[in-house]
């Protein structure tokens, strides 16, 4: 049975966000091994400041809707992108205030996981291609 494109997109986004959480955990683990636990928590919180708003927005946007509702989708896209950026900025600011002494780790986690948003889908596409032979 073929899934609706929005549901296929939602499944892919769920995999990507799961990969981003794993990336945040790997960064935190590496920081914990080489620096300390407080710094690792700061890095993890910085990464989560990217993942949570991304996941929230993706779940709200990727709902099946008729093609006639394209205008509604575009307005929702702008609204939710604004919500995503604002909430990410607020979460990052709160983490930077809380972990003042470890701000570099908060920013490192944020930047690495944010870049993972571009890298994780490529990794999954490569894995799917190797597994199925389809691009």
What does this protein structure show overall?
This protein is mainly α. It has one domain (5-64, 73-130). 84% of the residues lie in helices and 0% in strands. It has 4 helices and no strands. It has helices at 5-34, 37-61, 70-98, 103-132. It is flat, with a radius of gyration of 17 Å. The model has no long low-confidence stretch (mean pLDDT 87).
Gist of the model:
With 135 residues, the chain is mainly alpha-helical. It contains 4 helices and no strands. Helix 2 crosses helix 4.
> Helical element count?
4
Q: Note the beta-strand portion.
A: under 5%
Oligomeric category: single chain
In the residues, how many domains can be counted?
A: 1
The secondary-structure class comes to: mainly alpha
Poorly predicted regions? none
Radius of gyration: 17 Å
Note the gap between the termini. Answer: 20 Å
Largest sheet: none
Number of strands: 0
Task: Give the fraction of residues assigned to helices.
Answer: over 70%
Principal-axis shape: flat
């Amino acid at each position: 049975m073929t899934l609706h494109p929005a549901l296929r997109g939602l499944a892919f986004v769920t995999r990507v966000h799961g990969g981003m959480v794993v990336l945040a955990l790997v960064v935190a683990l590496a920081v914990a091994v080489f620096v300390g636990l407080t710094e690792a928590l700061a890095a993890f919180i910085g990464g989560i400041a990217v993942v949570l708003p991304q996941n929230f927005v993706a779940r709200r946007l990727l709902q099946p809707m008729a093609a006639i509702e394209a205008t509604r989708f575009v307005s929702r896209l702008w609204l939710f992108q604004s919500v995503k950026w604002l909430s990410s900025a607020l979460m990052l600011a709160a983490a930077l205030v809380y972990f003042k002494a470890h701000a570099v780790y908060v920013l490192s986690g944020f930047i690495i996981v944010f870049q993972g948003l571009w890298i994780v889908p490529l990794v999954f596409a490569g894995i799917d291609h190797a597994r199925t032979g389809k691009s």
